[in-house]
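Hi F.,

I've been meaning to write this up properly since the lab meeting, where we talked about keeping a consistent format for the predictions we share between groups. The idea is simple: the sequence comes first, exactly as it goes in, then the structure tokens exactly as they come out, then a line or two of notes. No screenshots and no reformatting. I'm using this chain as the first example so we have something concrete to point to.
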Amino acid sequence: MSDQATSREAQGPAAAPTQEESLYAVRQKVYVRAVSGLFAKWRWGLVWFTQLLFYGLCWIPWNGRQAVLFHVVERKFYIFGWVFWPQDVFFLAILLIISAYALFFFTAIAGRLWCGYACPQTVYTEIFMWIEQKIEGDRNKRMKLDKSDMSGRKARVKGLKYAAWIALSLWTGFTFVGYFTPIRELVQSALTLSFGPWELFWILFYSSFTYLMAGVMREQVCKYMCPYARFQGVMFDPDTLVITYDEERGEPRGARKKGVEPRALGKGDCVDCGICVQVCPTGIDIRDGMQYECIGCAACIDACDQVMEKMNYPKGLIRYSTENAVKKHWGMKEILAHVMRPRTLIYGTILGVVTLAFVWGLATRSPLRVDIIRDRASLAREVADGYIENAYRLQVMNMTEAPRSFALTLEGAEGLRMVGPETIEIGPATTQAVTIQAQIPYGVLEPGSHGIHVVVQALDNAKVRVKEHTTFIMPR
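Output, unedited:
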């Protein structure tokens, strides 16, 4: 008997054929149904607000420049009347801490508010879906169009949609780069096709990602790419406001005629219409419980409330509530009473303290900065009249957007005198290098290192004054 026959005999007649299973779920395209209601208005209100800010701020003039400009070439950040330099990275770090704790604080209170209303992925997906709906039609028409064979009409409709998406993506990328290169200079470069290499790259890069994320991948970004969807669970607790389905009230679900009392049929209030699933941008069924794919957009609340209203049932089958509130049948009074709890108090306190520190730092930020660098080539040398001289190089930064005159003086030792310019003129938001020499008669100080101060003071405002410490080397 052959080895192959022996192998088949050993396996026996009940041996099942080998089956291959994919480790990845095949994507089912989500056709989102349009919905109206309170939360849809809030969502669109934030779409308008964020996009007016994004597309508009770079065009607002301010002191001869645009109001918000992160000028990469000049290495300066302009935000209205403030000018930030690379040395101000401390403020950026504080701002990032504030953003993180604000995210923790509001997520602990009311779930994924950022994801549902203000996240760029949500905002641009909403805009792209609106364009798709206006060109291709409602949900049923879009599904029918995708299933149909290619025709002249289908090519025209699809081509118009893609052209609108590409145009919006390119304008978005152009605006984004306009915050790093002055937007009016960028317009001139576009008219003459004379972009710098990095400008063209970033316009195309940001445009491509806008198109890819909002037009193609959509819910896949929220479900598989966004890390926030994964770690949001550690920020939730039983008193966090999230979108919930009242299973006790809604089950068992089932269809019925309008006006029929559900309890008479042994059913709950859910009519199993599936509209809550159709309006969900990530394609989940909220009736299956809390899921990490839920971005908290509340579209299902608006949809379900409309169905309940048509059926003459009370609204709120799907609503913002908490796990404890659903289980214990709490009202809004009890829910609000549990908003301030240890977790939110800790987040809120840290957020408040860091925010106050940030505001205080901006309010007390000096409009003048001075850096001192010693002349390393000659630490000390003897000059005429028996004086010992040390040389210094000053970097004086005028951090305001007006030209200013500054006086330079030295303090800290008997007989100390300065050789160099006593006043300097510095243009708006400009740095100027100045070389000065400090001289002290030999023998006044003991050999070694001694502290002195360089004082820079604005001539038009005595309060604008910086006193920087440095060392004077007295040789043996």
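Notes:
Residues 116 and 296 are 5 Å apart (CA to CA).
Residues 152-177 form the longest helix (26 residues).

If this format works for you, I'll send the rest the same way.

G.
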